[in-house]
């Protein structure tokens, strides 16, 4: 063992002792049944996965979720009748609902998910994640994407290109997640299925964090051919582009895409070929989704790792070895200035490490065993594992010609495809982030997270990037822009403790922050919303933190230095949703509120307003200062159009 690996491993062990234990859950997120084009009943499939050591499965049939009435005809084919006989024998006539008719016809009612899930699910041991495979295409090219933990059916949308078809359907998932509050994510399936999707298509996507680097279906061409690149090469290209754009990394999944459960071999799509191993604090859909979005998993076709490989800015790979099996650990990376991934190091051992050094943009690892894969995707395959990549933090290039928009506020900005960067690229001069205080650290998230993720701290997600952008622009957020830039922080945890932690953190960024005094230091105004210790903030001498007020705070003597913004929920003030004309009484009420706010030198924001240009027009006409939105590009275009008139 070399010295560098020894010290990295030692650090990893020490780090593990200081953090919570890792809990590993094995799962397959791409599975089919008779609800679409699989050849077995959902209960039989779940029984196999549970019996074979899986803790979670997403049963993802094409363009359907299992909440409707569905009967299937059982053909006279001998294998199909045997499949039914096995199902009836295993679950019994009291469970199986079927009808026999003339000419020996046979129909079976498929159980809905809510009818059979309790038969299998056990807290902490096994769960079924409600899923769907949205299946569509473009000019004959099949385009499929899964939705993990979907709540409502997503009907496939068309588009004018491969990328646009994917994006339109991804946007539907994002919208459902925002509307329902249910954690879910889309992932792109088998890009090389009939070579329909190229790396360049995937590079264009927003809000997409996952794709299948390994899929067990026999027609998906994981490894490419003489004229098409394999999925691993695609993966590296996509992530280089994402890092340069300031986007979160694309993570790689291993899945079965199983369809066939009684015939096995290289011409069938069978179970047990690929899966993910997820490190999550508990076995719940929320925890699994959050862990995977944080990259706390690896993909495998048989190799098991002892720990999460990501340790700070290094990959520390430790295999759980099997007797008489050898392992090759490969580290792939892309150097700064290069466009191609290269093999940086290969070790024949069960443990190895590699650091993300200053000359590297991207780093990932692959473990190749000597053990032949049982019933492989392709003859000759051996058991393998793929870690998730880690990457350097790059500040994306500023887009030339961006017009700062004084009236644009990015509501829940952290839910955008590129937190902060999308808002800046669209000219927004106000962004909002929800925070939770956990062990003296502020994490950006709407709901309390299942675990602590360093990538989502307020400092890493907003303060450090803002500091670098301001440094690049000679002390300004936007080149030449001398107006205020608001960072609104919505405290979801206790008012006093969150405020104290924020005040302590901001001391490291004093040069960025407008203090509100006679000599404001920086271009960023910090506005505390949500749970606010009003008197404590108001009494502070150097107003590094200001208050987001409410209409009830008007007339109470809070200066605009202490309370620069007044906010309220749109439904608290108005009932008009943009249909027809705005009632005159409501417009008058709004104007009166605007006048009261402006008389005190403050600005008005209404959150939860309809995402509708008709509403935005009346808000601006009345003098409302900020349009609070999740639809950044639409508001950008609306405001720029208004300027052009």
Overall pLDDT level: 95
**Number of DSSP-assigned strands:** 29
Radius of gyration: 27 Å
Choose one word for the global shape.
globular
Portion in helices: 25-40%
Describe the protein's topology.
Layout: H1 3-18, E1 24-31, H2 42-51, E2 56-59, E3 71-73, H3 78-91, E4 97-100, E5 106-109, H4 113-120, E6 127-138, E7 141-148, H5 162-180, E8 185-188, H6 199-203, E9 210-215, H7 231-245, E10 251-255, E11 275-279, H8 285-293, E12 297-300, E13 310-311, E14 314-318, E15 327-335, E16 342-348, E17 351-355, E18 360-372, E19 382-386, E20 390-391, E21 405-410, H9 421-425, E22 428-438, E23 441-444, H10 458-472, E24 485-491, H11 495-506, E25 524-530, H12 534-539, E26 545-549, E27 565-569, H13 570-573, H14 584-599, E28 603-607, H15 613-622, E29 626-629, H16 632-644
Parallel strand pairs: 1-2, 2-6, 9-10, 21-22, 21-29, 22-24, 24-25, 25-26, 26-27, 27-28, 28-29
Antiparallel strand pairs: 1-11, 3-5, 4-5, 6-7, 7-8, 11-12, 12-19, 13-14, 14-17, 15-16, 15-18, 18-19, 18-20, 22-23
Protein architecture, described:
With 645 residues, this protein is of the alpha/beta class. The chain has 16 helices and 29 strands. Strands 1, 2, 6, 7, 8, 11, 12, 15, 16, 18, 19 and 20 form a twelve-stranded mixed β-sheet that branches. An eight-stranded parallel barrel has the order 21-22-24-25-26-27-28-29, surrounded by four helices. Strand 28, helix 15 and strand 29 form a beta-alpha-beta unit. The longest helix is centred in the N-terminal third of the chain and has 19 residues, at 162-180. It is globular. It starts with a helix and ends with a helix. The mean pLDDT is 95.
